[in-house]
Amino acid sequence: MNHNVFICIGFIALIELLAILVFKLLSKLNGKGKKGNKVDFRSVIKGMAERGFIAFALLSSLPQALTVFAALKIATRIKEENKISNDFYLIGNLLSIVMAIVHVKLIEYFLS
């Protein structure tokens, strides 16, 4: 395998580790000890899957898939929540999309 593949995978893994730290920090700042705003293993895996989907959509030149993704995110969050939680989810989703775009740019740079 090309050594650029390993460099690319390393950068993506580093970004994912930084994401865990950032989301834990945001959770602590927002939650102030609340149980519902906890970053756990399940949410980490879910975030990675979401970023993988976004990266796949962008690499496949299917930006319409981002609309589907957004609709699914909204549909899973329809319930009464306080504004702070909604802001927390918005910031988290935006950071996740930005990280997925960085993944795509890294893949394009190292594998082209």
Structural commentary:
- The longest helix is centred in the first third of the chain and has 29 residues, at 3-31.
- This protein has one domain (3-111).
- The two termini are 14 Å apart.
- The mean pLDDT is 79.
- The protein has helices spanning 3-31, 41-59, 64-76, 83-111.
- It is flat, with a radius of gyration of 15 Å.
- With 112 residues, it is mostly helical.
List the SSEs and their pairings:
Blueprint: H1 3-31, H2 41-59, H3 64-76, H4 83-111
Helix pairs in contact: 1-4, 2-3, 2-4
Portion of residues in helices? over 70%
Termini Cα gap: 14 Å
Strand content: under 5%
Would you count the extended β strands for me?
A: 0
Count of folded domains: 1
Average pLDDT score: 79
Kindly name the structural category.
Answer: mainly alpha
N to C succession of SSEs: HHHH
What tags apply to this protein structure?
single chain, mainly alpha, 80% helix, 0% strand
Compact summary:
This protein has helices spanning 3-31, 41-59, 64-76, 83-111. The chain has 112 residues and is mainly alpha-helical.
